Automatic annotation (TrEMBL):
Protein's GO biological process: tRNA methylation
Pfam families: AviRa (PF11599)
Record-linked PANTHER family: THUMP DOMAIN-CONTAINING, TRNA (GUANINE(6)-N2)-METHYLTRANSFERASE THUMP3
Molecular function terms, GO-annotated: tRNA (guanine) methyltransferase activity
Protein name (record): rRNA methyltransferase
């Protein structure tokens, strides 16, 4: 994949999962530069890019979703994540809560207290610096106050009951050794996922990015493919909903 929007490699270490954000066990951390490039491409397909709702229906520990919440704080007003795995969601809630600002401020206070108690510059100083830089991203004057929702859901079963307001879906599907599809759907999980996601979308202003392994084919009658990217062992399908079907 050629980086069109994230052309310059930056230092993304503030998002490392051993600093302010955390990673759920057995959920691989998604590369931040690739995530940002995918999000920028998604935004390029939207008519309106303000006060958007983003949804990740296989959010795991929500590392990916939280990173996007910070990097695209000025575009996002509602951030929704769901997963079938309740254990992963305990991590997701901690990550996503950071985006509302309050728990990030609490973390900063705790780190400041830690730092005062120690004489030397330690790892906690580095973490504190990262936390402060992340907080700045939320304080941008153009960044709307965020509503965060995180809940248990089998996306191969039904559609969650959002009121058709989702603008961006970005999801890293279960593949490889670390995560697998769960649930008891008789149909292929990706078909059910796309059936259900379609119901949540604002069809007049939405786009979805499905990240999957190289062998997967993502196609559905309700969507048209607008972009397809390959990066390492991953491929990314970017689709838009067909309006006439709703
Ligand atoms: C590759 S991981 C996602 C990692 C996530 N992007 C992160 O940043 O932590 C895929 C996730 O899909 C979830 N999953 C598997 N089957 C599912 C289903 N039927 N409905 C919803 N989520 C499912 C797994 O529990 C796993 O957390």
């Amino acid at each position: 994949m050629k980086f069109k929007f994230e052309a310059l490699k930056k230092d993304y270490s503030d998002f490392s999962s051993d600093k302010v954000l955390i990673n759920a066990p057995r959920t691989p951390a998604f590369p931040v530069r690739v995530a940002s490039e995918i999000m920028a491409r998604c935004l390029s397909f939207l008519k309106n890019t303000d006060h958007l709702t983003i949804y990740d229906p296989c959010c795991g520990g929500a590392h990916l979703l939280t990173v996007l919440g910070f990097l695209y704080s000025t575009n996002l007003a509602r951030i929704y994540g769901s997963d079938i795995d309740e254990k992963a969601l305990t991590y997701a809630r901690k990550n996503l809560d950071l985006l509302t600002g309050e728990s990030l401020q609490q973390k900063i206070k705790a780190l400041q207290a830690d730092n005062k108690a120690q004489d030397e510059q330690t790892q906690s100083t580095e973490v504190l610096n990262s936390a402060n830089r992340l907080a700045t991203m939320l304080l941008d004057a153009k960044a709307p106050q965020k509503e965060v929702q995180c809940f248990q859901w089998d996306i191969t079963k039904d559609s969650p009951t959002f009121s058709e307001n989702v603008n961006i879906v970005i999801t890293d599907l279960p593949y490889g050794n670390m995560t697998h599809w769960q649930g008891d759907s008789k149909e292929p999980p990706t078909k059910r996922l796309l059936d259900n996601i379609y119901q949540t979308l604002d069809v007049n202003n939405s786009v979805i990015a499905i990240i999957c392994n190289k062998k997967e084919r993502i196609a559905h009658n309700n969507f048209t493919q607008v972009n397809r990217l390959k990066h390492g062992k991953r491929q990314i399908f970017i689709l838009q909903p067909l309006k006439s079907l709703k």
